[in-house]
């Protein structure tokens, strides 16, 4: 049995990925910012949810298909954008794209990916979405939108939660900054992962940021393209006007990623954004952010029942996905969970991550007494059940008086 086959849950895939990667690389995936309060906030929000099952409901025919933007996907989750995935495993983004097509879930390719959207679209077709970071040179965003149209993509997302870089202390301590400043202990530790080191150097070192290569000088190295990306993003001068320009140029479905404030949710939907990704960037931006799960009911109330809401940050279990749907999400994205899979085992690793989450969703649906996603809702949450019982009991008391 391969290591991937033996993985029972997402944490097992994480352990395999950690063993494979030098610490400097694993820390880049795993790390949050500053005191990493955000990472704990995200995990604790899911751990605090309590679901109350219903008995004796025939759940022998369960299914987890989810419809989003006129498309029905095989599961209610897709793959979140994770930049530089090709550094963790060469061609990781191509594996993510291939798996997304094969397993019929969406893959939102990162604006900082190593593979290009053209490569991704060839593999994933309509299952490929693309994520854009606003750049200082507005012509770059405009061209990325044009390329997405030329690729025949249906959906793009603009990420709004990186106005400035974040204070990722693990990366600074490890010397994972631009230009790379690896310390001696970091280099020695990397030697304990010879397979990754050999692959990395055999493939030519730092992989190219595929989507950004066209904006660099001809013949630019991967390092030079990464420098260009770092000069262009983040761009703190971005405003709603920039989103408006993308909305005007993009005829397909537009998602805004990183919305946390209900007022921003209202502004975005008011200007024609088709759906929101409620996200705190997996605890990688502002450390003191609440969890998206805690914001979700407020955002749902702010935008009403019809605006598609996606959620990410902290999802490691099928039960987390079910909980997010009960709290008002239509769909969920996984960042690290699927990236652990890609890092641990390439295509097989992504397949495994998706299979684990699917199986867990299926079991939780059965245990709750829900045959499909439409059967889910706040009525499975302990808080709702308690409030409803208190309401009934106080009604009964009043009638007795
Ligand atoms: C290694 C890594 C790279 C990321 N790169 C991007 C990116 O390029 N663009 C983006 O919008 N979000 C990026 N994110 C954030 C994810 O899209 C997503 O919001 C987050 O990972 C969700 O949290 P989770 O990892 O706990 O599932 C990145 C996350 C990780 C872990």
Structural account:
This protein has a single domain, classed as Aldolase class I (TIM Barrel). Helices cover 49% and strands 10% of the residues. The chain has 18 helices and ten strands. The strands form two sheets. It has an eight-stranded parallel beta sheet. Strands 1-2 form a two-stranded antiparallel ribbon. The mean pLDDT is 97. The site of flavin mononucleotide has 25 residues, from helix 3 and helix 17.
What does this entry show, briefly?
The protein has 401 residues and is α/β, with parallel strands linked by helices. 49% of the residues lie in helices and 10% in strands. The longest helix has 33 residues.
Topology:
Layout: H1 3-6, H2 10-20, H3 23-30, H4 37-47, E1 66-68, E2 71-73, E3 77-79, H5 85-88, H6 92-103, E4 107-109, H7 117-124, E5 128-133, H8 138-150, E6 155-159, H9 169-174, H10 184-190, H11 194-202, H12 222-232, H13 240-249, E7 253-259, H14 262-270, E8 275-278, H15 292-303, E9 309-311, H16 318-326, E10 331-334, H17 336-368, H18 382-400
Parallel strand pairs: 3-10, 4-5, 5-6, 6-7, 7-8, 8-9, 9-10
Antiparallel strand pairs: 1-2
Flavin mononucleotide binds at residues 28-29, 42, 80-83, 110-112, 131, 159, 257, 279, 281-282, 284, 312-315, 334-337.
């Amino acid at each position: 049995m391969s290591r991937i086959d033996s993985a029972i849950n997402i944490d097992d895939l994480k352990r395999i990925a950690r063993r494979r990667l030098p610490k400097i690389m694993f820390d880049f995936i795993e790390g949050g910012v500053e005191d990493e309060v955000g990472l704990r906030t995200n995990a604790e929000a899911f751990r605090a949810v309590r679901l109350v099952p219903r008995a004796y409901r025939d759940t022998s025919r369960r299914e987890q298909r989810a419809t989003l933007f006129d498309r029905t996907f095989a599961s209610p989750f897709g793959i979140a954008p994770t930049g530089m995935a090709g550094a963790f495993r060469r061609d990781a983004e191509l594996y993510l794209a291939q798996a997304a097509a094969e397993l019929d879930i969406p893959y939102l390719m990162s604006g900082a990916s190593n593979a290009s959207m053209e490569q991704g679209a060839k593999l994933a077709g309509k299952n490929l979405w693309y994520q854009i970071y606003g750049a200082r040179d507005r012509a770059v965003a405009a061209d990325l939108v044009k390329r997405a149209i030329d690729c025949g993509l249906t959906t793009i997302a603009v990420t709004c939660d990186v106005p400035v870089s974040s204070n990722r202390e693990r990366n600074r301590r490890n010397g994972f900054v631009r230009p790379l400043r690896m310390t001696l202990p970091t280099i020695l530790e990397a030697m304990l992962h010879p397979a990754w080191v050999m692959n990395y150097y055999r493939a030519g070192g730092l992989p190219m940021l595929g989507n950004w290569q066209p904006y660099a000088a001809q013949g630019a190295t991967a390092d030079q393209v990464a420098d260009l990306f770092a000069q262009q993003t983040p761009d703190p001068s971005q405003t709603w006007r920039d989103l408006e320009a993308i909305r005007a140029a993009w005829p397909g479905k537009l998602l805004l990623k990183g919305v946390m404030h209900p007022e921003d949710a209202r502004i975005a939907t008011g200007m024609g954004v088709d759906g929101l990704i409620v996200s705190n960037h997996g605890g990688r931006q502002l450390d003191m952010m609440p969890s998206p799960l805690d914001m979700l009911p407020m955002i749902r109330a702010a935008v009403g029942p019809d605006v598609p809401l996606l959620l990410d940050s902290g999802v490691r279990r099928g039960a987390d996905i079910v909980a997010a749907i009960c709290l008002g999400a239509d769909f969920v994205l996984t960042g690290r969970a699927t990236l652990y899979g890609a890092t641990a085992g390439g295509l097989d690793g992504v397949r495994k991550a998706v299979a684990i989450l699917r199986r867990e969703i299926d079991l939780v649906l059965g245990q709750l007494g829900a045959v499909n996603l439409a059967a889910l809702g706040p009525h499975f949450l302990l808080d709702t059940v308690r409030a409803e019982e208190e309401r009934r009991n106080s009604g009964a008391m009043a009638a007795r008086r």
